[in-house]
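Build the 3D complex.
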Amino acid sequence: MIRALGKHTLGIVDELGDFALFTARAFTAAVGSRKLGRRIVRAIYEQGVRCVPVIVIVGLFTGLVLGLQGYYVLNRFGSEGLLGTLVSLTLVRELAPVLAALMLVGQAGSALAAELGIQRNSEQIDALETMGASTHAYLVSPRLIAAFIVFPIQTAVFAMVGLFGGYLSGSVLLHLQPGVYWSAVYNAVELQDVRECFIKAAVFGLLTVAICAYNGFNAHRRSGSTGARAVSASTTRAVVFSSIVVLAADYLITSILVNHS
Amino acid sequence: MSVPDTALDLFLDVRGLHKRFGENVVLAGVDLAVPRGAVVTVLGKSGTGKSVFLKCLAGIVHPDRGTIAFDGQSLDSHNAVARVEFRRRCSYLFQSNALLDSLTVLENVALPLEQTTQIPNREIRQRSLEALRQLELEKHRDRYPSQLSGGMQKRLALARAIVTRPELVLFDEPTAGLDPIRRNGVFEMIVKYQRQFGFTAVLVTHDLPEALVSSDQVALLDGGRMRFQGTPEAFNLSTDPTVRAFRDSAAALRDTIAAVRRGETVTSKEDL
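Done.
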């Protein structure tokens, strides 16, 4: 049993090291890569533009629910005027970066893992290697760089739509004065909150895209499955690991930032 | 093994290549000598490790033991510079073609030049169009690989392989899944462009008649070792039992079928 545990632990350490090298190689390989800009734009389109509808829909409903729940809870204490504060701080500090990242993992991350898995399966990645091209620079670097740009923007969109959702349920449906709601939002959110929000979004973007790319890229190395099943297993693994890492990193970043503020 | 007279100018020299996957020994000391400018075909039954052998040469699969020397330079794992140089001067044509399905025909051909050279974009486009023109694919340049027929995909893969003007091209089962007419066409194409561009070619296939007429040398891989290497004429005259079994398989099949039709009991000699 001890031997099995040790083997398993060494396997995890080995994979973490491999993942770190994979990510570092993706960044270093980007230097001097030709037509990188064009591929970054394409990745921004895939991760960003295509995911806007899901971000807007989820952001709107999150804001609507927050506004509804928040209004009735605050109403018990006669503090419904603080609804804007509750909605804005909850969204900007926590829900917008976390939920936007989870939505992007579900849509863009799974697509990335599946695409790379299929490319690995059909020897397209081997073909790039045999022609002497840097597979990291061609396939991974543009997606990682795009994630740095896309995740903060999508998070900002999520937060803004969510604030509007809070306004819809609080002011339009439950008749809270719009001025009261928006002034509470204005007074509650500080620059530090926005900075925290963007730091989280950028970190989540890097981690999730790297995890999804790593799993798709190494689909052939999954023991116990081959072919289409290996792609499916890698995609599932990518989405599950990314989601867990987003929540774990959220806790870690929050505790670091709270202690330093 | 019959040893060919290739001491003159070896471009690729493989010695004692070993590869195993778990308990399954695929290559058990494979030797191959490839003279510069020759077409060398490695024959063998399905599942004898021909593709693994070629992938070891290309560096996709790492051999457990053995040496590969390319133009006098050893390609061992410690010699990264030699491996980079090898990749620059070598192309690999995959059995599945391995075309990038999200890129157009023109983008596929331009890819190796874009990713591995500093040639200006205009020249890349010119050279890519030239390669497509030579393989009669120019009018399909804006289509995607999935919109092409099997033969056209094979030609596209060859266009991508030759656009970098390689000195060595490795062909992995270039006629797999093609009908006899298209199979002949692919061999004709390989020989034609080999003569035109002067590259050295190593093919693996089990298409015996086509290989014998289009190759300068043939080799036979069986049981993890090269059982024969020499000219097609020497192959036809060889009395080695393994060579004979492979070479005379069509005649053996004719005899077996005739025996079955006569109602005789026939025992299978080989596992499929």
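Chain A touches chain B through 17 residues (CB under 8 Å).
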